[in-house]
Design a protein that fits this description.
Strand order of the largest sheet: 1-2-3-4-5
Strand content: 15-25%
CATH superfamily: Gcn5-related N-acetyltransferase (GNAT)
Number of helices: 4
CATH architecture: 3-Layer(aba) Sandwich
Distance between the termini: 46 Å
Largest sheet: 5 strands, mixed
Number of domains: 1
Helix content: 25-40%
Shape: globular
């Protein structure tokens, strides 16, 4: 397994994997996610690939086929004047092809993101997990992540 920055040739696989992760979210939150859709279009993915502050890394097999991805965003802190300034690498989305799960691809991608965050001078790696996505919560806890904050909602 090799990890590299995503390229335009990866867009069809990225879309397929985005569909897989959307299905998981739609099962957890059918009130807000639409099954059969994806977070990005082909055009939006092509634009994202050009943005240095929003790197997308892919894990590819020996045939250079994308088996998993991680979408990241480089963020500058603070959100307000009462916080120490620092950089953060936010994981916007991480998905491994359902046929390839259990092969430690997610762990490899996560470790790669941690390395890149260090290279970029980041203080931390952060992400959000939907309540109910217990497999993702367990995975990230196994990778050493801890809950930083909780976002709560009241549905009207």
């Amino acid at each position: 397994m090799n990890i590299r920055k995503a390229e335009e040739k990866d867009i069809p696989r990225l879309l397929a994997l985005l569909g897989q992760v959307l299905q998981i979210h739609a099962e957890i939150r059918p009130d807000i996610f639409i099954p059969g859709t994806t977070k990005y279009t082909v055009c939006e993915l092509a634009e994202l690939l050009k943005q240095e502050d929003k790197p997308i890394y892919v894990a590819v097999n020996e045939d250079d086929v994308c088996m998993g991805y991680v979408f990241c965003q480089l963020k500058e802190q603070p959100f307000s004047t009462n916080m120490v300034p620092f950089k953060s690498l936010f994981i916007d989305d991480l998905c491994i092809d359902k046929q390839a799960r259990g092969q430690h691809i997610g762990e490899s991608l996560f470790e790669y993101v941690k390395q890149q965050a260090k290279v970029l001078g980041c203080y931390e790696v952060t992400l959000n997990v939907w309540a109910g996505n217990t497999s993702a919560e367990h995975f990230y806890e196994k990778m050493g992540m801890k809950t930083k904050e909780r976002q709560m909602e009241y549905i009207l």
